[in-house]
Amino acid sequence: xxxxxxxxxxxxxxxxxxxxxxxxxxxxxxxxxxxxxxxxxxxxxxxxxxxxxxxxxxxxxxxxxxxxxxxxxxxxxxxxxxxxxxxxxxxxxxxxxxxxxxxxxxxxxxxxxxxxxxxxxxxxxxxxxxxxxxxxxxxxxxxxxxxxxxxxxxxxxxxxxxxxxxxxxxxxxxxxxxxxxxxxxxxxxxxxxxxxxxxxxxxxxxxxxxxxxxxxxxxxxxxxxxxxxxxxxxxxxxxxxxxxxxxxxxxxxxxxxxxxxxxxxxxxxxxxxxxxxxxxxxxxxxxxxxxxxxxx
Amino acid sequence: xxxxxxxxxxxxxxxxxxxxxxxxxxxxxxxxxxxxxxxxxxxxxxxxxxxxxxxxxxxxxxxxxxxxxxxxxxxxxxxxxxxxxxxxxxxxxxxxxxxxxxxxxxxxxxxxxxxxxxxxxxxxxxxxxxxxxxxxxxxxxxxxxxxxxxxxxxxxxxxxxxxxxxxxxxxxxxxxxxxxxxxxxxxxxxxxxxxxxxxxxxxxxxxxxxxxxxxxxxxxxxxxxxxxxxxxxxxxxxxxxxxxxxxxxxxxxxxxxxxxxxxxxxxxxxxxxxxxxxxxxxxxxxxxxxxxxxxx
Lengths: 296, 296
What we know:
Chain A is an alpha/beta fold. In chain A, α2 crosses α12 and α5 runs parallel beside α6. The longest helix of chain A has 23 residues, at 33-55. Chain A is globular. Chain A contains twelve helices and ten strands.
C-alpha cells in the first residue's frame, strides 16, 4: 500500500511548479488565504498523482490520509477526491485512512461519506466511494455496525484499529482488561463483526490495523482474527521491518497489507536524486521483500 | 450547546427553498451529482444558519457534526466553514465534533485542520479555527499531545472521549482494565493532559465527552477530572435527562456543557408548527433547566 500523507511544505518540486527545489517565486507566495488553499490543494493533487505514477505499479493500492487533505479545507477535499480517482484509473485499490468512529447515527453519516450515498432534495450525492477505510472501535460494536454494514453493501472493507503503531498505544491498547489486553478484546470484536462476510478465499471484509512496530503481537492477533486482512503501518519511518511479519501471512498471501508512506514518497530526500525514481525503487524493493515473505 | 447534525433529507423547508413541506419541484431533483452536492450543501448551510438564528440565543455555542458535512464532499466542507462563521457572527462558541485521533504525525495534521494553519509554498492556509473539538483517546497520550498542544496555542479546548452515550460503549469503555474501568483510565489521561492548562476559574483546556445517558458514572468522573469541562451528549433523543447531571457542576457552573441536537432542531417535527419557533422554545427550555441546576 502506497501511503499518501501529503505535507504541502514538502511536496515534490514537479507538483509545486516552481524551480527544481520547489521554490515558488516570491511574488506568488502571499495570495489571499482562499487562493492559497486552492493552489496548495492543486499542488497536493499533482504530488499524489506523480507519486501514484512513480510507485503505483509496485503497490496494490493507495492509503490516503484524510487529515492531510482536510487541513486544506474544501479544496483539500476536492484534492482527496481527485487523488482517489487517479489511483483508481491506475487500477489501484483506495483506502481512506480517517480512523472514524462515532455513535450509531453519526457512524451512518461517516459510512455515507466513505462508501455510500446520501439522499438530498436535489438527488443522491455519492461519497468518496473508496474500497476500504479505517475505523476506530472505542465506541463499541453498535457504533461499528453501520460502518461494517455499509461497507458490506458497497463490497468494501473496514480496517478497525486493534493495535496501532505509535509508542503511546501501549498504555491503552495493551492494558489488561481484565484477563487479556484491550487489543485482544478489539480483535475479538473484529472477528465477530467479520464472521458473516468471509469470502471464497477465507478473507473477511472486516480487517484490522495492527502496527508493524510490535511484531511480537502479530502471531496472537492472527490467531484471534484468522479471516481478517491486517493493515500494517509502521514499516520504515516508524522502525518496523518486513521480516518480522511472517505470522500475518500464515493463512493467505493476501492476509496482510504493508503500508508505507514516508519511506516511499520521501525516499529521494534520503537517497538524493529524482523523487519519482527513488520512490519507484523504494516501493519495488518493499514489494519484493513483502511478496517473498507472503508467498514463502 | 446547539448540536448541528444536518441530514440533507430532513432540512427545514425554508432551507431547501421548495414549498412548505420542503418538496423540490420534480424537474430540479436530478441534477448531475456535483451540482446536487453543491445545492444540497447550500441548503445545509441555510438550515444551519436558520437553526442558529432561531435557537442560538439560548445556547453558548454550536457543536458541528463533521460527518454530516463530509458526506457532501468539498461543498459540504465549505458549508461547514460557513456554518462555523455564522455561529461566530452570533457570538457563539464553535465545537467541531469529529472525534479525530491518529498517530502523532497525523494528529498534528488534524490539529492544523481544526485550530491551526499549515505552511504551503503559496502561503499559510488556516484551518477551521474552532474554539474546541472532540478527540478519540484510543491511541494514547502521545497521539493526543499534538492536539492538546495545538489547542493550547490557539486558546482552544479539546474534549476527549471518556464515556460516550451509546449503549455499545459499555463493552469497551466500562471494561475493568484491570483494576478500574477503561473510562476511568481515560479520565486520568484527560486530567494529566490538562494539568498545565488550568485557568483562573479552575477549568482546564482539556475536557471530556461524558455521555448523559449514564449519569451514575458522572460523580466519579467529576472526581477524577476536577478541572475538566464535561461535554454531555445524550439528552433528549438518546434518553438522558438534565436533572441527573448535578455532580457535573459541583465545582463550577461552567463545568458542564449540555449538547442537544435532534431534540432542538427537530422539535417542530414532534410538536408540529414552525421549526424555528419550536427549536427556539426547546433550546430555551433546556437552557433554563440546565442553568437552574448549574447555578443551584
